[in-house]
Every structure is written in structure tokens, then in C-alpha cells.
Amino acid sequence: MALDEPLRMDSPTLAERDQQLKAEQGVSDVSPMRLRMEKFVKEQQKLIVQALQEVDGAKFRVDEWQRKEGGGGITCVLQDGNVFEKAGVGVSVVYGTLPKPAILKMRANHKNIADGDNIPDSLEFFAAGLSLIVHPKNPMAPTVHLNYRYFETANPDGSPGAWWFGGGCDLTPCYLFDEDAVQFHKAIKDVCDKHDKEYYPRFKKWCDDYFYNKHRGEGRGVGGIFFDDLDESVSDRENLFAFVQDALKSFLPTYIPIVNRRKDMPFTEKEKEWQQVRRARYVEFNLVHDRGTAFGLNTPGARVESILMSMPLTASWRYMYEPEPKSREARLVEVLKNPKDTSIERNDNPLRRVPPTHRHLLTTLHVLFPALVLPALDLLDRGLVARVVLAGADPEEGKKKQQQCHQQQRQCEGQHISANDDDGGDDDNRRRDCAAFYLVGSASAAAAIPGFTV
């Protein structure tokens, strides 16, 4: 009588080992990076959702989902809110198996993923990350996108194989406010410089190159940072994890002040129409060029609704649509086609041309009128005050200049404001003959300056 063959038990999968480890020991600073990254992004998701809800006043819908291959995620979406037309904050934790063709492809950037002379038929992998997209209702408030992720393969005994971090954050305005772009980039640069002075210029260029609509010849937005495949060739795992943590934590104190500045600004139907056109360009990039979208949709067991969370609720494609010359819309397109330096250390600041003997006057004005001076200088810097004619000019010459300004006013949809409009009612003759007036572009009405109206 033959002896029965001993039973052979399949070894536990990576997902099963991690589940057991969490149940027995919890997650601490000595846990595998897989578990620490999962814990971190879930904590940040809760904080971000809470902060966005406080801005909007509406609640997110929260969907928890599981993958039969292992892992799952939490997708939080707010639609048709008071401030946000659509906002999504998603966490995914994915366990799976890489087939041999995928391993061969990944070896192009990660030689240590497998021995070139002995490539296995498959490898277990883990991926976790947080993705965020915010599409505000107000066209003056910029869209923002964020993603930070960690990827790791597992050896047959469950020990880590190849690993890397990826991610970034970028801003996509429909109407460009220089101060928003500078603030956004400065915050990101501060995080990068804390870890490595080379990060910001390198990752900024990576972002500009990646978020580029090749078929349109323009950037998707005003950039930020983007990076992928950060592994031991860049730094050790703990330092890279610390960088990713700081970058993700910087989002709320950077973006919330920007959206709060813009969410209640007035806008026209024409400006809303422009927002829809720009959102169409956003959709084009995500569906045509974005590698993350393509990877997600082609992953077995993919949750399509979560992958397409980044899509805006509304967008518009208009045939041969072109912005009017010299308009704010045209300025944005010019910047997207020919990116300008958004760093805080720009050398083209017109205030540098103010004589040193007069600079103290600006400081004095700023102390006396802290809520007025800087926004007013921004109006001048953006060319929204097109012309200033000083009082005391010859009345006949003033009338000629006034007619010229009226013609410019019609061209740029601005308003004519006399320098003496608030002088009282006793000098009507002087007011009619005065050559002192300003041509103020209608876009200035959107400036957040208390008491400034046109």
C-alpha cells in the first residue's frame, strides 16, 4: 500500500502576509514601507477631505472598495458643491502580480527588479498612493491636481525587491493670477529645498515636460513638480519617504488660501465659457497623454470610476475657438505656450526700477494701507490700468487724449475713471476740463481689493 503524498500548502500571498502583520503588530515606524505608506495616505485623505468640506460646506460621498486580487481603496467625491463643481480624493492600495512582459518593460528603468539572466515568469507587487483633483466652480479659482505613490515588488519569501516613489502636484488656472502661481511654486520649492536643492529645478522641468499637450503645443497648466522612479539611486528609502510626506502635507496650507481668495470673485458668462474650453484641454491630456490613466484602465480589476475621478463634470469643445487678442484669456494661452518663470526670485520685478531714494515711500504706503498697496501694484503689473494722464495738462490736449482713451476703452472693454470723480460738486468746470483720468480694464473688477470698484 503506497503512502499518501504529503500535502503541499500554497505559500501566503504578499497581501495575506501584510494583513496578518497588521493584525498582530499594527503599523509602526519599523513596519514594512508598504504598511507605513498605506497608513500615511489614509490619514492625509481624511485631513484633506475635512479641509475641503470646510471650504465648500457640502459633504463628500465616501466609497470603500475591494479588489479580489488584493487590496482596495477609498474614493471620496464631492459633486455640485457650493465652491467645488467636482473634487475627488482617492486612496488606492493594490496587490497584484506582474507578468513577465511587464517585468521586462520595467527593467528599462529598474535593473534590480529582476536578474537579467533569470527573469521570473511573474512577480508579486504592491502599490499605494493618494490622488486628488479639485475643479472649482468659479473660473477665477484654479484647478489643482496631486498624486503621491509608492511601488514595491516582492521576492518569493516576501522580502522587498525593487521599490520606488513617484508623484507631484500642479496648478491649472483658467485665469492667471501671478501671485497664486508664485505662492504655489514657492511652497513646493521650500519643501524640495529642505531635502535636496536639486529637487525643485529637476522636478519642475519634469512637470513642465510631462503635463504638456503635444497636440496643442501648450502646457496643461502653470506647473509644479512631477517625479517618478525615485529609488536608491537617488536617496535611501527613509529620506525619500520623508520628502513625500512633507510634499503631501504642504498641500492644504498652499492651496486653501488660494481658493479662498478666488472662490467668491465675480465672473461673467463669457469667463465661465472660457473655463469650459480650458477644462476640455484638461480632459484631452488625461485621456490622450497621461500614463497613470492608461496604466489604471489597463490593470486587471481596475475600478474605472475611481480612475476617471479626475474628469471635470463639464467641459466644452468649440470649433476653432480663439481668445480675443490682448485679453486675459490670450495672456494665459501665451504663458502656456511660452512658460514664464514662476519662482519667487524673478528678476523682472518692476519695483527694482524704483530709485533707492524713493523705495521707503512704498514701505510707508504698505504700512498705512496693508490691504491695498500690494493688490494695486499687481493691477499695474498685469497691465489692467492701461493709461494714466496727469492733471495740469492743456485742456484741449486733454480732450484729445481723452478721446484716444475712450477708443482704447472700447477695445479692451474697460472703464474711464476721472481722477477728480470724488472731489465734490463745486468744481464742475474744472472737472470737465481736467485731463487726469485712468483707463481701467474690466478684468480689474475681479481684483480682491477692498473698496476698489469700477
From TrEMBL:
This protein's record includes keyword Oxidoreductase: yes
Q: Tell me one GO molecular function of this protein.
A: coproporphyrinogen oxidase activity
> Pathway involvement?
Porphyrin-containing compound metabolism; protoporphyrin-IX biosynthesis; protoporphyrinogen-IX from coproporphyrinogen-III (O2 route): step 1/1
- Enzyme class name: oxidoreductase
* Keywords linked to the UniProt accession: Heme biosynthesis, Oxidoreductase, Porphyrin biosynthesis
Q: Which InterPro entries match?
A: Coprogen_oxidase_aer, Coprogen_oxidase_aer_sf
The UniProt entry's sequence similarity note says:
Belongs to the aerobic coproporphyrinogen-III oxidase family.
What quaternary arrangement does the UniProt entry report? Answer: Homodimer.
Q: Know the name of this protein?
A: coproporphyrinogen oxidase
Organism this protein belongs to = Thermothielavioides terrestris
User: Taxonomy-wise, where does this protein's organism fall, top ranks first?
Assistant: Eukaryota, Fungi, Dikarya, Ascomycota, Pezizomycotina
